[in-house]
Amino acid sequence: MILKNKWKKLAVTVLAGMMVMGALGCGGQKAADTKKPAAVSGNITGSGSSALLPLVKDAAESFKKQHKEVSISLNAGGSGMGLKQVSDGSVDMGNSDVPAASKLPKEKADKLVDHKICVMTVATIVNKDVAEKVKSLTKQQLTDIFTAKITNWKEVGGPDEPITLVTRPKTSGTRALFSKYAMGGAEEAANKSLETDNSGLLVQSVAQNKGAIGYVALPYLTKNDTVATVAIDGVAPTLENTYSGKYNVWGYEHVYTGKNPKAAVKAFLDYLLSADYGKRIEELGYGVSSKMQVKDTAHD
């Protein structure tokens, strides 16, 4: 009986020890999961793509809640401007809809580091007075419209009214993507459009001008019903059609930095590319790169 009691006490002791070790192990894992990011401080500056600006601004607001000693200043100005400014060192980050090599000399582009953030779909938009009759245009029709060969909507089945072009400047990456993938590389008609260097203002201008047509990044339309989108060759500009490869007017969004970004910039980019922030990408109207079902190096 004494021997049996001793074995019983030993079993209880061992079991208790295992429970303590297990509890310690669970606590250690939990601590690792909730570990706070290392504190950083300083100023971060960025400029460039107005198409990517909503995403970067959204990430910046979340990042600053975790890093209260960091200030972040972001401006648009177009992809070309952002690439030029990050190349000459006047900003920390250059946001772009297109690869740096398409806007900068090779020797300057080679000195930058590309951080590929997400996918951006470019949509054709029209004033609502046109939308009832014009729901889809062919790439050839788009080319003829933006090169001013077609100047009245009745020529493509729309109302009898003149077409008003609303476009972006040559520094715009959105313009470069639209020209390459929707217009086959054709150049827009010079001095025949309302030109704006801001995507938000472009949407506003299309909404306010009868007969207007323009192009804009899909995220600017997620909470905006003042304009209507137009399909290209019968394919609507949606993330699903972009992922599947049915819709071809899209590009990767890039944030470029120098080869040795400061600690605050590196921490911000780590956050922007993290799984923690990743769930926000589609909510804001951008595409997740890993969901692309087509591997098209031309879009890199």
Tell me what you see in this structure.
The chain has 300 residues and is an alpha/beta fold. It has 2 domains: 42-118 and 253-291, D-Maltodextrin-Binding Protein, domain 2 (3-Layer(aba) Sandwich); 121-244, D-Maltodextrin-Binding Protein, domain 2 (3-Layer(aba) Sandwich), CATH 3.40.190. 39% of the residues lie in helices and 21% in strands. The protein is built from 11 helices and 10 strands. It has helices at 2-33, 53-66, 79-87, 106-109, 128-131, 139-146, 173-182, 199-208, 239-244, 263-272, 275-283, and strands at residues 42-48, 70-77, 93-96, 112-126, 136-137, 164-167, 193-195, 212-217, 228-232, 250-258. Strands 1, 2, 3, 4, 5, 6, 7, 8, 9 and 10 form a 10-stranded mixed β-sheet that branches. The longest helix is centred in the first third of the chain and has 32 residues, at 2-33. The radius of gyration is 26 Å and the shape is elongated. Residues 1-34 have low confidence and may be disordered.
What layout of secondary structure does this protein have?
Elements: H1 2-33, E1 42-48, H2 53-66, E2 70-77, H3 79-87, E3 93-96, H4 106-109, E4 112-126, H5 128-131, E5 136-137, H6 139-146, E6 164-167, H7 173-182, E7 193-195, H8 199-208, E8 212-217, E9 228-232, H9 239-244, E10 250-258, H10 263-272, H11 275-283
Subunit structure: The complex is composed of two ATP-binding proteins (PstB), two transmembrane proteins (PstC and PstA) and a solute-binding protein (PstS).
GO biological process, one term: phosphate ion transport
Protein name: Phosphate-binding protein
